């Protein structure tokens, strides 16, 4: 996670500087209306790689004992065009989504942050907590989920994995003591109340990736410094941004800027201890490409992986 978080600096700096080629992803809606397929290409000249991720999402899958997401990533050499690797996109999606929240937390959360809350107990929730604990010395985390048994399982698993006290949240009121909140759900309504937020809290909102999906209360968006992974992507897909825009609660100028602009110092990060900051991510293909390239290089170094011939 630490290495991937560092790699995200390269990805987002290149994206905001126009040094990466990345069209807005293509989305196909799948019947019966609860699933979709996303196609996410990217080209990074700085690492000599071009790649594409194909990912499907189905919100009914967990009830069937299946992952919500299935994904594959293919990487090519950008000079020769030769295919280099086929990778598990599910694992890399979880890793890179956690890593970018780790980077956002490192840049935007208070240095004194010690408590966290995770809303949503899927694989994304796990890597969100891991990433936050990587960049801040978190001593206690609360977990929220609509299903109590999932919250209990998550708390036990992550306590052992991270050696951090992870507790099932006894009530939403515990948010008043939380320094970092991560939301990783497919919700279509806010998952917490704005009035419960502690001054100076930082929020990573990574679950909602469609206009009709929303995790963050509009009141929070209105009063927060909002940083996004990519303007074009969020203005096309992020319900957390689009819904307040439609209601004329904010304008497009309310977006403080992109994460890559914070990385390069073009725009400010946190400016006061009491400032509320929100990082809104819909996920971008350069994250996948840089993370997959990192995994590929580590695999070559360690001899892990299966060599295939296409001849």
UniProtKB/TrEMBL annotation:
Cited InterPro entries: NAD(P)-bd_dom_sf (IPR036291), ODC_Mu_crystall (IPR003462), ODC_N (IPR023401)
Superkingdom assignment: Bacteria
Pfam families in the record: OCD_Mu_crystall
Protein name (database record): Ornithine cyclodeaminase
Organism: Desulfofustis limnaeus
């Amino acid at each position: 996670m630490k290495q991937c978080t560092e790699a995200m600096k390269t990805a987002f700096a290149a994206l905001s500087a126009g040094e990466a080629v990345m069209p807005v992803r293509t989305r196909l809606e799948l019947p019966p209306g609860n699933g979709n397929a996303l196609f996410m290409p990217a080209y990074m000249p700085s690492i000599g790689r071009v790649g594409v991720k194909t990912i499907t999402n189905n919100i009914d899958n967990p009830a069937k004992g299946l992952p919500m997401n299935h994904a594959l990533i293919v990487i090519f050499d950008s000079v020769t065009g030769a295919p280099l690797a086929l990778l598990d996109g599910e694992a890399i999606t979880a890793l890179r989504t956690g890593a970018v929240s780790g980077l956002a937390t490192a840049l935007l959360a208070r240095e004194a942050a010690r408590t966290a809350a995770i809303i949503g107990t899927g694989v994304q929730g796990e890597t969100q907590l891991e990433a936050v604990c990587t960049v801040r010395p978190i001593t206690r985390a609360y977990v929220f989920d609509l299903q109590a048994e999932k919250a209990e399982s998550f708390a036990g698993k992550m306590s052992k994995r991270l050696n951090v006290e992870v507790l099932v949240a006894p009530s939403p009121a515990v948010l008043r003591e939380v320094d970092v909140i991560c939301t990783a759900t497919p919700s279509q309504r806010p998952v917490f109340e704005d009035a419960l937020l502690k001054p100076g809290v930082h929020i990573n909102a990574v679950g909602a990736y469609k206009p009709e999906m929303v995790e963050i209360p509009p009141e929070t968006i209105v009063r927060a410094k909002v940083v996004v992974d990519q303007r074009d992507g969020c203005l096309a897909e992020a319900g957390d941004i689009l819904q307040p825009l439609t209601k004329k609660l904010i304008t497009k100028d309310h977006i403080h800027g992109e994460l890559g602009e914070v990385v390069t110092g073009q725009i400010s990060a946190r400016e006061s201890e009491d400032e509320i900051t929100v990082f809104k991510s819909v996920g971008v293909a350069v994250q996948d490409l840089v993370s997959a390239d990192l995994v590929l290089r580590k695999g070559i170094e360690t001899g892990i992986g299966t060599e295939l011939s296409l001849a």
